[in-house]
Every structure is written in C-alpha cells, then in structure tokens.
Write a structure and sequence with these properties.
disordered C terminus, about 325 residues, globular, three-stranded mixed sheet, mainly alpha
C-alpha cells in the first residue's frame, strides 16, 4: 500500500513542520529571478511604478510590465523547479526517504500510466471545451501567433511538467503521506491534503476574478480528485499525468481572462462561468475514474478506503535513506 510508505524514514512532527518551511523557503528563493527581471524592467521604464506592479501581481500579465510572456512563463516555472529541489533535499536529508516512495509501491515507475492519465484527461478536457464551443462559439477568440505560440508549446511540454510534478510530489506525496502517518487512516489525509491544496492556491489571480469561496470549491474538488485516484490506484502516476495535462492544455490551447496562465494560447475564453467549470470538472473526473477503474481493475471503493495503514516491518533501520 502506497500510504504505508509514510512509515519509512524519520517522521517526527518537527521534521514535517521544518520540511514544509524549507519547501516554501526554496519557493521564495525561486521568485528572486522573477522579481529581479521585474525590477530591472521597472528601473528602465520610468512609466512603471507600484501601481503597475500591484496590477501585475493580481493578473500575472507580464505584458503589462513590458516583459515577454514566454520569458515570464519560464520564470514562473523556475520557482517550482527550485521548490522541487528543496523538497528533494527535505525528503532525502531530513526524512531519509526516496522520492520514488511517493510515486509507487512497485520497483519501477510505470511511465505508460502517466502517459495514459495525461492522454485520457486531455481528451476529456478537449471534449468538454468542444461542447462549450458548440454551445457558445462567440465566447472563444482564436489567436494564432506562431512567433509566440511555438516557443510556448516547447516550454509547456518540456518545462511545465516540472511545476505540475512538484505540486503532485508535495501535496499528493509529502503532505498526503505525512498526514497518513499521524492519522493512521485514508479519509483524513484525503480531505486535509485537498483543503491545504485549495488554501495554497488561494492567492491565484482567479480568486480575485471569481471569488475566494467559488474558487476554493474548485481547488478542493480538484485536490480531492487527484488524492482519490492516488489512493485508489495506489500510485501517484495517474495524478502526475492528469495535472500535467491540465496545465499544458491551459497554457497552450485554452486560457481565460483572470487565469494564472496568461499565455499566447490558441483560444482565449472571454467569459468563464465558474459553476459550469466546476460541473465540467466533476463530469470529467467521474468518467476518468470509471475508465481507469475498468482498465486497472480497481477494487471496490469501500475496500479501497478501509483504514488499514500500518508499518511494513520488512524495512530495517539500516535501509533508511538508501
């Protein structure tokens, strides 16, 4: 059982509190190049001031500061790359664990499962957007600028999975297993890690655009879905694929006003109805779970969520950190 990996290594409460602090510290350090570029740009342009900086932080629109969108996008991803490095050091040197223990109970990671999760979730999202387009074609603005779009595709496919993988390793790996260690069941980590996921995303520009509680419902439901398939599949592989598909599609195909991903995507959605977005997500999640349950022969949900989390005594102290 994947959550039994929570007993590996060293798991004092102070280690988790320090670990979370270190990860956020590295995330903050990762913002230094971004704000270095911003302040350099502001120093060169006397027309840019504190009001423009505040507006940028609320919208994440790099063009408002005269910064290339793709450069800004790379700088955003860099924050998560440095945070991932911090998480790796926390896991290895503070808890004496392996990053792979957050992904699977098997000897090797099943990359085909990551790809399947990516393709299936991407297909469901494109289908939902296709239906929305048929219903309201005027709500979509087509925008193809090859000069900006082609580099965006490369950045999204090569570098954006760093950001999505960090979030999965942190929320559905480190946090989920950490809570499971102390709670000794599956429901508490499922719920608490999802709520934490929502709160951390509470500063996203979408919150100012569509309301805190509305977006918290969306974030928490998304967190529940990702945590649920992680527990039910007993691996992080599908969640890694789903999260990557969500953000890559959001960056390259469909973005919307107020989104944290302000890129030169193919389509700009002029008006988003959050409740419809939540409903579409739930439908996609149900279909995704049904297909994966059939394909991977998942056990019944009642059995899957039984509170059976226990230490695997086969691992000796001598194995810690190897």
């Amino acid at each position: 059982m994947l959550l039994n990996h929570s007993f590996k290594g060293l798991n004092d409460l102070w280690r988790y509190l320090l670990g979370i602090f270190v990860v956020f510290l590295f995330y903050g350090i990762g913002q230094l190049p971004l704000y270095g570029v911003i302040y350099l740009q502001m120093s060169r342009n006397i027309g840019l001031g504190s009001d423009e900086l505040i507006n940028f932080e609320n919208t994440m629109n790099f063009e408002s500061l005269g910064i290339n969108k793709n450069l800004g996008f790379l700088l955003l991803i860099l924050m998560f790359a440095i945070a991932l490095a911090g998480l790796y050091m926390v896991v290895k040197y503070l808890h004496f664990k392996k990053m792979k223990d957050y992904v699977t109970v098997k000897t090797d990671i099943d990359y085909s499962k990551i790809v399947f999760g990516f393709v299936l979730w991407a297909g469901l999202n494109i289908l939902i957007e296709g239906i929305n387009y048929i219903i309201s074609p005027g709500n979509y603005s087509f925008n193809l600028e090859l000069e900006g779009f082609l580099p965006l595709v490369v950045i999204s496919l090569v570098f954006l999975p760093i950001q999505t993988s960090f979030e999965e390793f942190f929320f559905r790996g480190y946090i989920l297993q950490g809570i499971a260690f102390f709670a000794k069941n599956k429901w508490v980590p499922l719920l608490m890690s999802s709520i934490f996921f929502g709160l951390v995303h509470g500063t996203n520009p979408e919150v100012a655009q569509y309301g805190f509680w509305t977006m918290q419902i969306y974030y928490v439901i998304a967190g529940l879905f990702l945590a649920f398939i992680t527990i039910w599949d007993d691996s992080l592989e599908l969640a890694l694929g789903v999260h990557a598909a969500t953000n890559i599609l959001g960056a390259t195909l469909f973005t919307y006003r107020g989104s944290v991903l302000q890129t030169d995507s193919l389509f700009m959605i002029n008006e988003v109805k959050p409740l419809w977005m939540i409903a579409g997500f739930i439908v996609s999640a149900v279909v995704f779970i049904a297909i994966c349950r059939s394909k991977y022969q998942w056990k019944k949900i009642a059995y899957c969520m039984e509170d059976i989390i226990q230490k695997d005594d086969s691992e000796s102290i001598a194995d810690i950190g190897k």
